[in-house]
Design goal:
alpha+beta, three-stranded antiparallel β-sheet, two-stranded antiparallel sheet, 3 helices, elongated
Length: 103
């Protein structure tokens, strides 16, 4: 699943919130850009994003690790948005979440 597909999925799952898709894509790309990757002794890869507690991934290849990290970040953001928790500002990109009013 691509980052854009994850964004669309998140948008569908968070219908009661207004999140501009373009801003969400920029935010996720900025966050992933800060990911730190380490090759473990067993040959697997581990990655996390400083400042995003609990967002980490572990996979056999660096590509799979990055893909898993993107998925974990998307799920983490979904939980944070639903809970109304503050989100870190990344490279000047700040997500502003507003509740949608049903008509």
């Amino acid at each position: 699943m691509t980052t854009e597909e994850r964004i669309i999925r998140m948008r569908v799952l968070t219908l009661k919130y207004a999140v501009e898709a373009g801003m969400l894509i920029r935010y996720m790309r900025a966050a992933i850009g800060h990911a730190e990757y380490r090759k473990l002794d067993d040959g697997a890869w581990f990655a996390d994003i400083p400042g995003f507690q609990g967002v980490w991934a572990n996979a056999a290849s660096v590509e799979d690790c990055r893909s898993e990290l993107e998925e974990v970040l998307g799920e983490w953001l979904l939980l944070k948005i639903r809970a109304g928790d503050p989100l870190p500002v990344v490279d000047g990109v700040e997500l502003k979440i507003t509740a949608e009013v049903a008509s």
